[in-house]
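Thread: magnesium ion complex, take 2
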Amino acid sequence: MSSATQIRAEETVLTPPSRWHGLLRRHATMPAILAVVLLGTYLWVNATDLDDIEQRALKTSELLRAVGEHVTLTALTTVLVVAIAGGGGILLTRPSMRWLAPFATGLANIGQATPAIGLLVLLSIYLGIGFSTTLICLVAYSVLPVLQNTIVGINQVDRHLIEAGRGIGMSPLAVLLRIELPLAVPVILAGVRTALVLAVGVATLATFISAGGLGSLIVTGIKLQRETVLVTGAVLTATLALTLDWLGGVISDLLRPRGLD
Amino acid sequence: MSRDVMIDLQQVSKFYRGQKAPVVENMSMTIQQGEIIVLVGPSGCGKTTTMKMINRLIEPSSGRILIDGTDVTALDGNDLRRQIGYVIQQVGLFPHMSVATNVGLVPRMLGWDRKRIEARADELLHLVGLEPAIYRNRLPRQLSGGQQQRVGVARALAADPPVMLMDEPFGATDPMTRDRLQNEFLRLQEQLRKTIVFVTHDFDEAIKMGTRIAVLGDRSKIRQFDTPENLLANPADSTVAQFIGRGARLKQLDLRRVDAITWEDVPLIAPDKATNGAKRQLEQAEGSSALTVDADNRPLRWVNAHDLTTDAGALAGAGQTVTTVEPQATLRDALDAMLASRDGAAVVVDEHGRYAGTVTLDGLMQVIHHTPEPEEPGAGVPDQRAGAAPAAELTPEQR
Ligand SMILES: Nc1ncnc2c1ncn2[C@@H]1O[C@H](COP(=O)(O)OP(=O)(O)O)[C@@H](O)[C@H]1O
Ligand SMILES: [Mg+2]
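Output below.
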């Protein structure tokens, strides 16, 4: 009986005291900062005398719509990018297709290296303006980090682990699902975070081809020289980007496989 | 000797595209059930390739491989590998899974229920000397290198496969840990009686582990395939001899155990007994020694006639220290113990430390001189044929 308790005591020493504790410590700062910034902006706008244009642009319903459009664009982009680049990255690390990887990342590089606004205009010439064109542009623009990180993340898994897995009779699919992907998760998610932030930024351009988003606030602010509108649009965009990045960090921490360090 | 053939390699070759020469060329080898076959040879000679063709991690280009009479190509590769234990030098424990999960992977793939998998993992951890209650929930990085390889061996044994493939399994550990792991594995094998293909580039390890040793040259060509004893005594050619290296006689000492040679008896002096009898005996045979023992017959000190003339009370501290060996120790261990003792003798003790006999340098010399002389063709005879000839001459002498 007493030896059993001793053993338990030893185990608690070996495992970190609490996952939640560490999570809180690492990730509590960003929400606090964002809350302060949002509150400050709100108070400042509130204290300012708003004219008609400003009041119309900064209506709660108007803001919610812009944020909603922006989030929708970003979320859809993320889903598509993870599916395309994640799936592609997995395929491009299979032994039979590995040789294709440089071409694929080269292609994705073109998407990212082209100035976003240029890409948007080019695409809208061929595809017309609107939501789906924006989405395609966003995907093309943010596919690279996820693709590259998926490839790097899987390739950095120790070859001997894969050999050991095959050696004890795991199928290639089992090796992928139980060894390669879990061990690549931190690197892949880092790519997804980068893609998210990129997507939030580029989505502000959606307004140029009438796809809405927070960019419309910024553009209105610039065109009509309304500082409050401009600042509100910029602050909301930045907050959204940082929130998503923060969320990505939390998720990445939660999904990080044990036993790595 | 009508044991079952467990693994049969028939004219197996491996070519890689774009390479003129094969990596393994027409390799044939028959392995009996329960043997540890060691493939030993220089780096790059094809040991790993040969081994991996047995579980089809590498598909042979030509030839056949039978395990227990069945052609390995008749089975699905994954199913085949689940029935063959596999241990590699880098261990390959999955860092994100607990020790128990790692060990239970193969049973899980074989569809065992959870209770049985857990019980089996505990059983195996216990078998390899890791207390399950302490280690089962640990992660691999919380183990030492030696402990990790024990878990690696446990994982390979999980589904009780009849055949095990081990590729330099102890190669990455420090010498002391390696020695311990080797000993433990040999002890385990006495119980388990697996058929094992063991790859190493270390000839000393080959001698220690092998039932039979295949010395391989380029393209996995078998230069010699024989028991460690015969290999040391009769290297087939100069390359093999070179590979065995210097000190073949010394290496032979690794092969024989203390219980395989005759022990001598020395006079014992129990603590409370009168010393007169022993003293008279010692005086008759000048220069010889007696052993003082405690109440349980455990040896204490070497004493000679001179030590005994002092009064009995002072006997406890008199004489020379004793070095002991157990009957299972190798003759090399015994030699080491003898050299550490002033009298050139080591005391053999049983598992409770009680006196059983003594072994001496003289006795050891006799053993060495009764084993066949190893040929040493390295000395100025680079030609292979010249090296092989004297070895062939030796063979009839040995029979
Ligand atoms: N996939 C491969 N393609 C081409 N050559 C290979 C491949 N794998 C191994 N080799 C070559 O085969 C030879 C034998 O390799 P290996 O069996 O690993 O040797 P060992 O285990 O004895 O050190 C080496 O010369 C190596 O370069
Ligand atoms: Mg090798």
